[in-house]
Task: structure prediction
Amino acid sequence: MSSDVLPAPIEPPNVENKPGASDGEEETQKPRVDAGAEPISKRQLKKLMKQKQWEEQREQRKEKRKEKRKRKKLERRQLEPNSDGNDRKRIRRHVAHSSLRLVIDCSFDDLMVLKDIKKLHKQIQRCYAENRRASHPVQFYLTSHGGQLKKNMDENDRGWVNWKDIHIKSEHYSELIKKEDLVYLTSDSPNVLKDLDESKAYVIGGLVDHNHHKGLTFKQASSYGIEHAQLPLADFVKMNSRKVLAVNHVFEIILEFLETRDWQEAFFTILPQRKGAVPAHQACGSSPEDRQSLPGEWDSASEQEHGRSDAGSPQTEAQGQQSSPRQQ
Result:
């Protein structure tokens, strides 16, 4: 009988476990299912946590915004005691629109550098805002609109295309308004404005030129054969600085005068306190040194950073400190 040779038993491979190795470490040695994915860094993890926190606090931020709006609304009511809480819409219903046309002449674009163009833009924004909230808003015109000014407005204030109650035209004002209706406000004019004729169109020169083009608006008005005049600043105000007015100051003084029909009140309401303006009759009793420091004429051309509106009065000085377009 033949004897069968049985195969030797196969022993499992001897896998040695390192002493001290924990189950957790064994788990880490196992291949990860998502081994192909990149591990999350500490920075990314921190970012995810912040995002989660931001989402969780969404409602809190919403409540804070509501509270802020309520607070601002309450502040507006306190500043406007005549308002019954419906704010701008209710206020606008009681507005009495003036037929007076107020024009900012932007035909000096090529005489200004970009820095001054931006200053003019800000002055125009202020004029627009003040006219919108005025009790007697004027017919606001922006003429010769183009070049650097339009480009700057397109880039930094795209909402201008939706402005209301304003006529923005690329044409020169002389092409839009009859010559006999035009009055150019320039501090270089020998004519002093005593009252406002609401059938007229008053032009403010939109030029910020740091006094490089003094008298330019007066020369332009003379060459076109149109009326010109200056605001009666010297009749009501004396200042301890040059009488240079920014474009928005001239604009606001006219708005104020339309409401009060009082030049002195209009000047002292609008002129910045830093101008040191005092009523003309009080200045008569000042010392010789003080009187020497008071300019005799309104230097609208020297309005460095302001819109020079040769409206001719103390307003000009006050505005001279602000940079604004100048009316020559």
Q: What stands out?
A: The longest helix spans residues 58-79.
